[in-house]
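Hi P.,

Sorry for the delay on this. The queue was packed all week, but I finally got your sequence through. Input first:
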Amino acid sequence: MKRIISLIVIGVTVFSADYCLSKTPGEKGAVFLKLSQGARPIAMGETFVAIADDINAIYWNPAGLANIQNRQATFMYADWLEEITYNYLAYIHPQQIMGGIMGGGLTLLDSGSIDRTIDGTGKIGEYDAKDIALTFAYAKKMTANCNLGASIKYIQMKIDNEKSTGIALDIGCLYKPTVENLTIGATIQNLGPKLKAFISEKDALPLNIKVGGAYKLLDNALTLGLDVNFPSDNDTNFNLGAEYWIKEIVALRAGYKTLTKDALKSSSLTYGAGFKLANPGLEIDYAFCDYDELDKTHRVSLMTRF
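Then the structure:
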């Protein structure tokens, strides 16, 4: 326990130093790590740090894994901007290992073929660009009301024949206070040293602190969530989200994001739905986000419990 607390203190210290240096958007490396994972949380306005009750916790708050009691696997496909595809695959196994739960995930961002030119004289060929993150997560119940979790990510970015690599760490906490149906969560995302450079430059990771709460109503059919983000490269922002299950078969989801409107001059609303094809079996989730001038994006996730 003391070692875990020490890691958290070190992480907060490192983050605070980087946080105070600059708040300029777009100056960090490995920005694909900021792209959200899981159609369910995305449809809820990306409010999941205190919910974290399924395999999507690997990305949003690894501490949530400690509450999961069945094996889960998921695959997400995202039709991203400008013909970019964004895919995510993850698996968790609830068997107790060293007193906790383990899981892992693989993220791939593929920018497709890009025209190669020389001094704007015209196309002379093509090259590709791909970003990959391999994640290993672990969580443990520390008390009846408190979970701690962490994940470590190996990052590799490739542009043509050049590569950049690095390591990032997430640390999360999930706490249930005495107030019934209320959960509080917090994570520090993307702690780590600067990425090894493509050629000569080194870039800092897109560090972020997330804190939030979730509250359940109507016999747990309705979940309300609030996440507040403190990114190192942008202004503080918050997200609101809601999920309502109809007879535990169909879920309706919606959310509101403050940063989207300010940073991308686009719609702040997200929408989506979920469908359970078997219990606990297979679930299909869908999320829609409109970025106005940039484009509309769609995410589809398949999740199985077994």
